[in-house]
Give the backbone structure.
Amino acid sequence: MVSAMSESLPVIAALPTTWLEQAEAELAATVWPRFEAVCHATTQRVVEAMIAHRLGEEHFYSVTGYGHNDLGREVLDAIFAAAFQAEAALVRPQMVSGTHAISLGLKGALRAGDTVLCVTGPPYDTLEEVLGKRGDASQSLRALGVRYAEINLIDVAEPLAIRLDWSAAEVAQMRAARMLYIQRSKGYGLRPSLTPEAMKALVTALRATHPDAVIMVDNCYGEFIGLEEPTAYGADLLAGSLIKNPGGGLAPTGGYVAGRTDLVQASAEVLTCPGVGADGGYTFQLTRTLLQGLYVAPLVVKEALKGMSLAAWLFERLGYAVAPRWDAPRADIIQTLFLGSPERLQQVCRLVQAHSPVNSHLTPVASHAPGYASQLMMAGGTFMDGSSVEWSADAPLREPYALFMQGGISYSHTRWGLAQMAGVLASGG
Ligand SMILES: *Cc1c(COP(=O)(O)O)cnc(C)c1O
């Protein structure tokens, strides 16, 4: 993703002096108190889970070999389950990514002849090969006999962002599906992400329409954004990545699924094998780190939300369309910036990289990434490679040249980087 050509960093950026002050005053008077309140509540839930499960020093050591009776792994799963308001959870460094976690959830729940219906329009790019929408992988759901269909219940009218006036045909399609699949965050799409309120309305309505369906949520980037997780509204299974929100920037790798016990167990059997399920597997001495990551995750999400709301304010002032607007309710830690040209996109990516703590001297260039059809431009001078809970920005190189900026573990860092960047852009650089 990066080449070793360096560009010099602007020494003093010409940001109009009042912008930052004005932005922070307006943000502090509108959306920031909400982020703070959510952080208080979600932090409490996480710490209460640790107390309830009597987390102790003895849980920080991994059992080698088969990993049988690894107390740390068991308590890790139990604490994640409570934090995600779920019956059970499976949290493993062996999950390569969010895509892998979602794939485990799908494969565990679905059988040949079943249909999975995605109700939020096209799913995230890397799910195309998992589902068999693209490519001819021998282990895609399509190759295994699972049918895939999609409808789009997303309404562009914010803030609710969903449509509940379903047609008879849509209802019939839902009733015929074994799984109703929801993607919470926009991915590289241009639709709004689903706020906790929208998730609640959608899950509740789907549950009422089709009580027997498995409701699965791609929860990537949505963790700890609201007071509750979709499981609290009746979703059966969530899946996501530990190098996004729930890893708190500390998890070096991994993924999770959380939800109904039978579905989590089935995911575990796909990850390991029948008979072993969740009861084996080395945890690489990572239990402490993964739990500490969970402990700081609500705080990190708050820092990211503050940073991305500032990004929205500054880019709007610079004349770019942004989504969401700076004072809108936030549904995830992503900020879309409509930059309009590949050159501007590349420039902003370079500025993110140049103001990052790691690899600041490298220049991001567009390249192919496994699982994606489009070339991707990715800026991320992050401690964990590819981590997008850290301040980063990426974009598929295609119209309308929208940049997806996200994360930011330290608001102070993101604030400085954004101010430098806005200074360069404001002075016509
Ligand atoms: C990041 C993401 C995923 C999974 O991506 P990985 O890179 O495999 O972790 C899935 N869905 C959405 C909406 C995402 O943002």
Notes: The first strand starts at residue 2 and ends at 3. The longest helix spans residues 287-317. The mean pLDDT is 94.
